[in-house]
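re: that chain from earlier
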Amino acid sequence: MATSQSHGIPEEFRREFTNTLEHEIQQVKSKFSGHIKIEGFNGKSKVFNSMDSFEFEPRVGRLPQSAPSGVTLHARQLTKVPFVAQKIFDKFDKENLGDLGLPDSETIQAMKMAFGRLIDKHAAIAADGTVYGGVEPFVTAIDMPAGQTVPVGYKGPGVTPANTGLNPEKLIAAKKIFALNEIDITEQEICLSIDPQGEEDLMQYVKSAGNDVWAKMISAYLEDPTKKLMGFTVIVSNRNVDAGSNITKCFAYAKNSGIYMAPEKLEVEMDILPTQQHALQITAYATLGFMRRFEKSVVMIPCDRT
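^ sequence. v structure.
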């Protein structure tokens, strides 16, 4: 008769599983993680300071009086948030337990996919969510200005508005907002997050529009999704923000100044639970942080899903 260890797990078993999971997490291909700015820092939160833009004025006369203006600083805070995922295995779940440390084990793959969904979900929430900053203690709520949103019924200038899905006119309007904010889509990467329905909307547009110029541009992207769509780097994600009433908020943002992410941190604990007949409990603790950095670098594009 085998004698169990004192409710312990062999160290090599822990190490194999933990190392494999951490390696797999590093390979996570979330939709957004490669398309947002990563800001590493120690501690729970970091305050980012910005200042008003500088303007040059004509210098009049000789030896004029100096007239400097004060600098106005604006702060906002990026805070790491803890997350947890736990699973319990029965003592006789031999198949799962035997393959636990393998890269293709169901447990590791499930945690890996869950971690990718976590990143995607909170990156999308940060695009339109309330951020906090202002003066110390940095708790002033900062919401997205209405001018950074393309109307859900937009179909082009002078066209009677009625709620619609994604169309090229909305993308043109988003590009205009970036241009008004002096963000040049040709000089920096602008990402566009759409859901699968948005991609289908574009397909339907191509079918109905025939050979117009926008249909040709959209067709080029649909034939090869690695190409840009009207200048945007496209991210197709199920994690776009649900705004209720059958409205989903797709959005576009400047990669280097739109959404910031604190680097992910992952810790794994494994325990034997004698009160549950020595079941194996695996707990993964993660910390992540997301923040919209500049409102002018993000444009919301609501789309009707009815």
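The chain has two domains: 11-51+73-136+266-290, 146-258+295-304.
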